[in-house]
Every structure is written in C-alpha cells, then in structure tokens.
Design goal:
- The longest helix has 18 residues.
- Helices cover about 60% and strands about 10% of the residues.
- It has about 160 residues and is mainly alpha-helical.
- The protein has one domain.
- The chain has a two-stranded antiparallel ribbon.
C-alpha cells in the first residue's frame, strides 16, 4: 500500500521544522544545489525587482505557519507526481534527523522559490488537441489551466508569474 502525503507529514517527527528543512532538501536535489542567493536573484528578475521579493521574504519570515504552509504546498505539489513521491518521502525522513536551519530568511527564500516553481509548474488541467484541416495541414492546440491557491499564500503566489 502506498503512503498518502498526509500520512508522511503527520508521522512522528514530521514537525514544522522538518517540513521547512525537507523543502530545502527537496529543492537542493531538484535544482542541483542552487544557492539561496541564486534563487533570490532569479526571483528578483521574474517578479520585477528586489523590493517585491524582499516584501514576500519578510512576510514568510515573520509568519512560521505561513512558511510551513508554503513548504507543504510545494511538497504536496511534488507528491502529485508519482515519480517524485519517493524523493519527497526521502527528504522528509532525512529532515527528521537533522538540526533545523537557524536562518529563517534562508528558509523564506527557499519557500518563495519553491512557490515560484509550484506556481509555474502547478498545472491543474492540460489539454492537447490536433485537428486536420481540409488542405491536409494539422493544427495542434493546447489549453493549460493552472491550479488556484485558496489560502493565506494567495497574495504571495499571485505576485509570481505563471508559465
């Protein structure tokens, strides 16, 4: 029987610090150890400058529950991909035995970058169709709908661009 995401995040030892650390581990694996400074620089480019990004980082840094929910949103989004499930389970297990990162700003940057990845890759529905015209040409159409965020993270994720 395959574990459910809720089972993994409510297992003994999977507290708020574990989730935040697991997000950091997950993104490190997915992004080939991209540094928080590199994440910040990319976010500043896509969001429109340091002022907006700094405001979002401060908001995440100031609210531990919001920061944890950002991590849960990104990790649960990754969980939806069956190939990523073992990775998510592994990073959560690894994070249980590690000391938490002290610098909350680093966690906020990682969470914000994770939200950015989730937002640009969080497809709710994708539909591709092909149609052959009378002249023999084929036209492909693609419709992509992105998942909405109905939580306190809405204000932050609305500021992030979509793919």
């Amino acid at each position: 029987m395959t574990a459910q995401f809720i089972d993994v995040i409510t297992a003994p030892g999977a507290d708020s610090d574990t989730i935040q650390q697991a997000l950091r581990y997950y993104l490190a694996r997915r992004l080939d150890d991209m540094t928080p400074d590199e994440m910040l620089a990319e976010l500043q480019q896509v969001v429109g400058g340091p002022r907006q990004v700094d405001a979002m980082v401060q908001q995440l840094s100031a609210d531990p529950l919001l920061l944890e929910n950002a991590g849960l949103l990104v990790l649960s989004g990754a969980w939806e991909d069956s190939q990523e499930r073992p990775v998510v389970e592994e990073v959560i297990d690894d994070a249980k035995g590690k000391m938490p990162v002290i610098e909350v700003a680093i966690l906020a940057i990682v969470a914000l970058y994770g939200l950015y990845l989730w937002r640009t890759g969080g497809v709710a529905r994708s539909e591709k169709t092909a149609e052959r015209k009378a002249d023999g040409t084929v036209i492909e159409r693609e419709i992509v709908e992105y998942a909405s965020v109905d939580s306190p993270l809405t204000a932050i994720t609305k500021l992030l661009p979509t793919a």
